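Cross-check.
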Amino acid sequence: MTKRTILTALAAGSMLALTACGSDGAEDAEGGGEISSGTLAALIEDQGELSTTADILGDTGLQNVFDGNAPYTIFAPTDDAFEALEIPLEGEEAQAARVAILREHIVPGFLTRDDIVGAIESGGGSVEMQTMGSNTLTFSEDGDTLLVASSDGTEARVAGAGMSGANGSVFPIDGVLKSTDEPD
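Predicted model, tokenized:
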């Protein structure tokens, strides 16, 4: 199956997930609960382990984007993941770096864990997704654990249950995914 076919199938799955948002039995990002009426920004704000991501959203003005209607899926690094990062995250000079980091963790569309796992299975063990930045994320599974790798080789694991809100899904991850600035 080609990359384009996989991405088309994933987009179709995203549309199904969007359709499910209006039903009483809609599932959350983990595939087993209800979708919250809160926005992505609110979901992130409510998670103690994502306070650095919430701070970055607020400091850079991106919170307004994730309070809007457009659907996104965010693979949000936990606070522990940001603590291990070796670049400054505070001060005005770091604002562009913070925005760039988050763009590499965001894919367009409303994806659930079931959507991603289904695409992995259809793709022969992995699936690639383009971020809102220059990064390509590759998803695979190790048992029940969902793994994600950046185009530069950095890797992370989904660290906890995903959450779905009115305009997308958030998956906490245990690492910061970086991308290369070099063209493919």
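The first strand starts at residue 72 and ends at 77. The two ends are 21 Å apart (CA to CA). Passed to J.P. for a second look.
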